[in-house]
Design a protein that fits this description.
Arc Repressor Mutant, subunit A, D-Maltodextrin-Binding Protein, domain 2, seven-stranded mixed β-sheet
């Protein structure tokens, strides 16, 4: 039972005026926010607020409790700031999980800079595309790409990446450049097998969403493998901008049908709880946000 998180959630809902805005403010799901407030009311045995589809209003008990919550939470923030101010530097082990391609291409060059700035912090970085359980497996932080599922985990957006439809100019010259998504079905496709929509690619065009069923000549769980085959003129790929941006800049790969855009994914730092986040984890999150926020491929 996390009494402080229940209190923080309740106070945020009251201050924000709605469960939806509170969820956005706390980087939680609306379901998680509702659950924390409901658990708080159940534990106290009183109703703290009246809920309607249009507005929230505090009960007499809720008004009094909100004032006490704000006082206690403010004192907690002051205590944390005081402890942090008296700490010479962050120290200890941070266990991190990151996705393979993104981890190698964009995060691997950053670790040394972080370690140089924080010599008392030790990093344990695991590179894997599987979905790890942060709490069960003891991770302090994970970097995840995509649409995050509803969970009790806390997230901080670091950057964004869009999926790009592209191929080599040699392939397009030989086989023709598709002018409509439906024509992709007639082409050699190099497919990423972990794509959420599978072999049905979704694009947003001038007249709305278009779906096309592709027929891969290569299917792999490695975006790097798709990219390598495309660079050898073997077909069309739909891959994230963080992976193909340099190829697009050099002309090795060409984006076609720019009027049809695919999904934009967020890149997030995910951690188990907002409460009592250690200085070393907080520093790493801030470092990653600053390093990735201005990336050339971070476009929407």
């Amino acid at each position: 039972m996390d009494k402080f998180l229940e209190m923080q959630t309740f106070a945020t809902v009251v201050d924000a005026g709605s469960f939806v805005r509170a969820a956005e403010s706390m980087d939680m799901s609306k379901a998680a926010v509702s659950r924390y407030v409901a658990d708080l009311e159940a534990r106290l045995g009183v109703r703290l607020m009246h809920r309607t589809t249009r507005k929230l209003s505090l009960t007499e008990e809720g008004h009094a409790f909100h004032i006490r919550c704000k006082t206690l939470l403010s004192e907690l923030d002051e205590a944390e700031s005081e402890i942090t101010a008296h700490s010479a530097s962050a120290s200890g082990l941070v266990k991190v999980n990151v996705p393979v391609s993104f981890g190698i291409l964009h995060l691997a060059p950053l670790w040394s800079d972080f370690m140089a700035a924080n010599p008392k912090v030790t990093l344990d970085v695991t590179i894997a595309d599987r979905f790890v359980d942060l709490v069960e497996e003891g991770y302090d932080l994970a970097v995840r790409i995509g649409n995050l599922p509803n969970s009790s985990l806390v997230s901080r957006k670091l950057a964004s990446t869009r999926m790009v439809l592209c191929a080599s100019s040699a392939y397009l010259k030989k086989h023709g450049r598709p002018k409509h998504p439906a024509e992709i079905a007639e082409h050699a496709v190099l497919a990423y097998s972990l794509l959420a929509t599978g072999d049905q690619w979704e694009l947003e065009g001038p007249k709305g969403k278009v779906r096309v069923q592709v027929h891969p000549v290569l299917r792999t769980n490695s975006g790097d493998t798709c990219r390598a085959a495309a660079l050898k003129h073997q077909g069309i790929i739909l891959q994230p901008s963080f992976l193909v941006e340099e190829d697009l800049r050099s002309g090795a790969l060409v984006e076609f049908m720019p009027n049809y855009r695919s999904v934009v994914f967020g890149i997030y730092a995910v951690y188990p709880s907002r409460q009592f986040v250690s200085a070393k984890v907080r520093l790493l999150i801030e470092f990653l946000a600053k390093a990735l926020g201005t990336a050339k491929w971070c476009d929407e």
